């Protein structure tokens, strides 16, 4: 919660649910990453929040960009990034999209299998590729599945294949899981990466880079370690597994860059119960739900801080739900959320830590509710 956001909401009084992002917080977050990891290049994960104002600020500060599509590449270029500051970090790409990226000057591509290598070799000959490996996401509130990456031993063959296809086998990447609370989570993945580097070096292929991925958290309801703690742990792991031959490293913060910079303003639409029982839980319906930007409440993985004007009053357990006519649009029911008894229909509610993965998950006007409006200040 920043004074600038509160002043904006009080003066503008925007109608309907909206996200407000404070660029001063984004700037501070970027400088914190750059200071804590001075030898590591920052590649902001555009998917977290692609607002033009956010991208332009980060470009002016010297950030690089991790892009998942040609559209995101164009956003980064429009914000002022040059092609050498952009990575096409999605391991699942149409060949024509690889060609489009190559035409824009993009030279760095993620792969995780030989078929993807073949696409890059045909559509972007001579470029650099890094292979994403699977790793343990224990400790993450939003663990990543096996959809992306391959077993470390398979990565050796994928990168050898890239070398034979005329590409530059550039490095290894991994992701330890989003909202990763364990500062030591990078150790095992770096051990695997070092093994791949060593094996390929014995075969005459010299890798150069380790992409440490994202996973850096933002604060929700629980305290989190500072970026400096993660940096210290990563530095120790790099030295432990690579010795004096530390590779080039990059990170891809998304949530950790913009999550705490944003607040969603929403409104209570209805408060009701499902029975006359005095013990029955209250249901609090907001004018935003899973389909309006709060998709990360799925399985209650992300529990956002919620603020109201009545927070000093007595609280009671509530089920929190969105406004759409879809039974999946329930935010917190397995672990009910405690909200003030005095909360009423029409009251405004502020949901903190929502700068990341909200507007991008709200791209379709489901049930006719318009996508989440965004203000960047």
Order of helices and strands: HEHEHEHEHEHEEHEEHEHEHEEEEEEE
The counted number of beta strands is 18
Query: For the record, what CATH class of the largest domain applies?
Result: Alpha Beta
Helical residue percent?
25-40%
Number of domains: 2
Q: What is the global morphology?
A: elongated
Radius of gyration: 22 Å
Count of individual helical segments:
10
CATH structural fold name of the largest domain: TIM Barrel
Structural class: alpha/beta
Mean pLDDT: 96
Give the name of the CATH superfamily of the largest domain: Alanine racemase
Q: Beta-sheet strand percentage?
A: 15-25%
Architecture (CATH level 2) name of the largest domain: Alpha-Beta Barrel
Low-confidence regions? none
Catalytic activity: L-ornithine + H(+) = putrescine + CO2
Pathway: Amine and polyamine biosynthesis; putrescine biosynthesis via L-ornithine pathway; putrescine from L-ornithine: step 1/1
Pfam family, one: Orn_Arg_deC_N
Keywords: Lyase, Pyridoxal phosphate
């Amino acid at each position: 919660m920043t004074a600038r956001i509160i002043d904006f909401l009080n003066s503008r009084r925007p109608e309907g649910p909206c996200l407000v992002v404070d660029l001063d917080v984004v700037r501070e977050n970027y400088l914190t990453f750059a200071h804590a990891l001075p030898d590591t290049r920052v590649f902001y994960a555009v998917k977290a929040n692609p607002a033009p104002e956010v991208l332009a600020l980060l470009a002016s500060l010297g950030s690089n960009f991790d892009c998942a599509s040609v559209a995101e590449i164009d956003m980064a270029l429009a914000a002022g990034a040059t092609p050498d500051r952009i990575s096409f970090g999605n391991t699942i790409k149409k060949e024509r999209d690889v060609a489009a990226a190559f035409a824009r000057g993009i030279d760095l591509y993620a792969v995780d299998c030989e078929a993807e290598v073949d696409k890059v070799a045909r559509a972007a000959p001579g470029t650099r590729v890094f292979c994403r490996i699977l790793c343990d996401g224990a400790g993450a509130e939003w663990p990543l599945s096996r959809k992306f990456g391959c077993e470390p031993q398979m990565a050796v063959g994928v990168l050898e294949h890239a070398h034979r296809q005329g590409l530059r086998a550039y490095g290894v990447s991994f992701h330890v899981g989003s909202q990763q609370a364990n500062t030591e989570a990078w150790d095992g993945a770096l051990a695997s990466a070092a093994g791949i580097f060593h094996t390929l070096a014995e075969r005459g292929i010299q890798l150069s880079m380790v992409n440490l991925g994202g996973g850096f958290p933002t604060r929700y309801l629980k305290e989190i370690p500072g970026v400096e703690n993660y940096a210290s742990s990563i530095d120790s792991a790099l030295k432990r597994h690579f010795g004096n031959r530390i590779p080039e490293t990059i990170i891809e913060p998304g949530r950790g860059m913009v999550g705490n910079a944003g607040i969603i303003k929403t409104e209570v639409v209805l408060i009701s119960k499902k029975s006359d029982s005095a013990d029955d839980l209250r249901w609090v319906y907001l004018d935003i739900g899973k389909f309006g930007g709060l998709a990360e409440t799925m399985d209650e993985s992300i529990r956002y801080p919620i603020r109201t004007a009545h927070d000093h009053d007595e609280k009671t357990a509530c089920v929190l739900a969105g406004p759409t006519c879809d039974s999946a649009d329930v935010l917190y029911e397995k672990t009910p959320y405690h909200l003030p008894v005095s909360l009423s229909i029409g009251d405004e509610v502020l949901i903190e830590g929502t700068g990341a993965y909200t507007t991008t998950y709200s791209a379709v006007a489901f049930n006719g509710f318009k996508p989440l409006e965004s203000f960047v200040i």
